[in-house]
Amino acid sequence: MGEYWDTAPVAFWLCAAALALLVMVGIWLSVIDILTHRLPNRIIFPSYPAAGVLLIAAALAAQDWGRLVSLAGGAAVLWVFYFILRLIYPAGMGFGDVKLAGVLGLYLGFVGWSFLLWGTFAAFLLGGLWGVILIASRRGTAKSAIPFGPFMIVGAGLVLALG
Q: Domain ranges in the chain?
């Protein structure tokens, strides 16, 4: 996204607005998920068109047609992946996580397929490490419910920031 600074400044600022939206929504959803173990539809559903419009406008402003395909594909692939996980083990993943995956897939797909892979990996790595810490500190067990949304958001955010 930073490569747009010199070549397509309008696209750069649209990406900046999309990232600001991600930070705002990500913090909001993380706090709610930590406190209630829920990711509300009233926040997730409006995030799809808001992020989509900003990222699509950025791709159009930069005349970067490949990003249009990768952002839509990223959202679809990540949503389907989390949906399959939900089908396999419903107690392990809430449907809010599935819906959030689509939003994060827009962002990760926009920057590239490898980011989608690494963002997903980072979420599971961070969530797994947190589970190990809970078990090691005797504050939880292998059956303890962990809000996964914050790990998804932080994983995606780290990969976007470091990439």
A: 4-162
